[in-house]
Amino acid sequence: MLQGWVILLVSLAYIGLLFAVAYYGDKRADTGRSLTGNPYIYALSLGVYCTAWTFYGSVGRAATVGAGFLPIYLGPTLMALLWWFFLRKIIRISKVNHITSIADFIASRYGKNTLLGGLVTVVAVVGIIPYISLQLKGISTSFLVLTSYPHVTMPSQLGTAPVANDTAFYVALLLAAFAILFGTRHLDATEHHQGLVAAIAFESVVKLVAFLAVGVFVTYGVYNGFADVFARAAEHPQIRPLFTVQGTYTNWAWLTFLSMMAIFLLPRQFQMAVVENSSEHHLNKAIWLFPLYLLLINIFVLPIAFGGLLHFPDGGVDPDTFVLTLPMIEGQEFLAMFVFVGGLSAATSMVIVATVALTTMVSNDLLMPVLLRWQALGLAERSDLGGFLLAIRRGAIVVILLLSYAYFRLTGESATLVSIGLISFAAVAQFGPAILGGIYWKGGTRLGALVAITGGFLVWAYTLPFPALAESGFLPHTFITEGPFGIAILKPYALFGLEGLDPISHAMLWSMLVNIGGYIIVSLLSQQSVIEHSQASLFVDVFSHSTDGERARFWRGSASVETLRSLLGRFLGFGRADRLFNNYARRHGINWANQTSADAELVDFVERQLAGSIGAASARAMVASVVKEEPLSTEEVMNILDETSQVIAYSHQLEQKSRELEAATAELREANEQLKELDRLKDDFMSTVTHELRTPLTSIRAFSEILHDNPGLETDQRSQFAGIILKESERLTRLINNVLDLSKIESGKMEWLLSEVDLKEVLNEALESTGQLFQEKNIQLTVTLPEKVPFVKADRDRIMQVILNLISNAIKFCNPEQGQVSIQLSSDESCLRVDVIDNGHGIKEENLDIIFEKFRQVGDTLTEKPQGTGLGLPICRQIISHFGGKLWAESTLGQGAKFSFTLPLQPDSDTEPALARTNGLPVAVKN
Amino acid sequence: MDKYQQQKGKKLTALFFLGCLLFNYPVITLFSTDGLILGIPTLYIFIFVSWAALIALMAWVIEERT
Q: pTM higher than 0.80 for the full model?
């Protein structure tokens, strides 16, 4: 069933589907209902990282180096963690400056420099074309392998199909059409290609599902799960070593580093992650979704690799084709077809995005600067350049794809999938220092970047592609073994005698040394021009000054509005230019009729709009050609920057001051609240005291009146009334004494007579004086005293007062019928402790603290006669805390209460705060 | 970046260093042995499990609300 025409038909149908998805995506975008404006599509579109190299090549690499294929995916996972900082910054810079490619980014950072943009473009094209050709090769190979179904035959045995019969050729042409249709829709390359993004996200899903399908089939269909595959593999002495790390750890580390660089420096990744990013917020979710995608697509790589090695032990089948040949040999033609489509999706997504990205670079940073400068063409004077620009881009797409195809036909079978991929990675890694340095270090100069990229690129070329050419027979093999012209020290795999490293580690070491070293040293030694200086500041501080006004401060000159409008019109079309100008006027409240000369901000605006279409360097050149500029001197730029930094410093100081003020205000407010609270407490206290005083006074007065008005009262009644008067007067005295005590303690005017107190002796004396009461009420008393307790430093009488208060409370509140009171004294290293326990009805939990507040007696005050002054416990607590101890109550309702206090053996500094605390209320009491 | 985002940034940086430690020499040599755990070579199970755990932590840090 799987004849050539069927496979061809399926391939065409799949690509047709891609066109449909992209068309639908663009359609949705045009009607304002974006399909791609969410983080999931964004994360999937980053999946363009996984190409045919991942789809077929990972298994191939795993079959030779085991886990050694993983650093390519672990690196991006690690890098994703740092996206939070630097990718966010790159995205912001690119959006503010209308940057459309990595070449434009570097050119713009280092003073909108044409030479640098061109250099980066050349490096990218040289590095990426082999990579694109690799994808075409993947399509071609998988097609050939699949056509021989049900036999497994390697393409090397089948020979190469003539171009006219080669699927890859037609696929390349179709992809060129796709890239032209959906990748160059707008002149302004900063505008999002939503259809393209939708198609790439769709392809990411297809390749993942296809790979998981073949993985599940091999692991669970052919074998009985992971353990089974590994158990069988373990029996083979050739396979078993793959269980451990093959190759060196140096290689492992360099591969990780390389993929960390590649994940944001590859033009296709930059295109998807930065240019097509529609919201910085999408980045957040992508940080973990994208690594998850990588994890999923790698889970079944090892089982498939081992399955392949077990099925084809003689080495007659290329491991790069295991993904396809395993379903084939098992007779699963539909699965094999699906796998082929998955591989096709992996390859086409890379080809499409890489081509679009390279095209933008080639047209904006290579062709436009040259063409615009070429006086003979008279291009700079032409009135409508928009169509011409688009034609250039479309032509570039076709040229790049044909070049890639030609490269694939020329090199043929010479290299495996992975090695070409790694060589490309190493090429784009050369942009790393200039970009990362450029966004974090203002000191990086144009010359430094030029030296870094040129040097790195040359070393890369000499140590990777050149020896690869020699291995393929395009150069004499002695170039590798003996060095060029027999100069051993220049051997490309052992430069300057550095032996023992694999080619990738070797090349990365030398190229990064030259690159980073060159960048730093030359930057330190060279001077920045004015525009470099301002661009460096705009890039590094993008988060602090990205408003239009600030950007424009670095320019001074004169231009007319009309010249600028016609300049923009020539490139973008006059209708669009008018729209942009009108929007600008609305935003800034300008009427063009009254405004004929442009200010710096408008010039900057026009330049940025142009940059999106023709690149930063060309835009700069074009704007400079129509306006009269007065160049700023370096000193002036420095002044502007200094002013900025001074303003920032002032604003920091102001912020600091205002924070301090806020803190002071908060403190004041708090103090005020406290005062208010004290005032309220004082009022409460006064009204309670007067109320408490009035109660006994009222009854004294009432009974005195009775005695006074009725001289003929019987003696019994007379003495009963006099007794009440006496009792109430006593209560009044007690109350007044208590109030005085409390007032003294709280105002700190209490005189404390400190002495060494034997608590045991005090307790005994207190029990003696209350003995009578216990007997009267028939209360059973249990006393537990240790032999001897240490002395404490305290006022004996006050402590006696506390103990008497607690004991009399216990007597008052214990069970009226079968009263039991227990008193315990104990000591540990730090303090003495007294517990007074009764068996009364207890205290509710919520009241355990309330009873220590002034005039708070627990119980129903309406029905029950108050049994005390309501000041006893508060006074006790004040006394105990004065000596650094603690007084508290514990109780379970219905089972009595336990009052305990402690006194520290060595009153420490706690005493002082206790005093200080009680100082809070004197005002209230005295007033 | 506000304070809350900076906090997330710090956590992500810490995870970055953790990842660098796990997936590199010398930690990885500890697992580069011939043995099997649950029928899967120790090296593979170590890498995939720590990889998944790292992603879970990333997701947790990113999606965490205050």
A: no
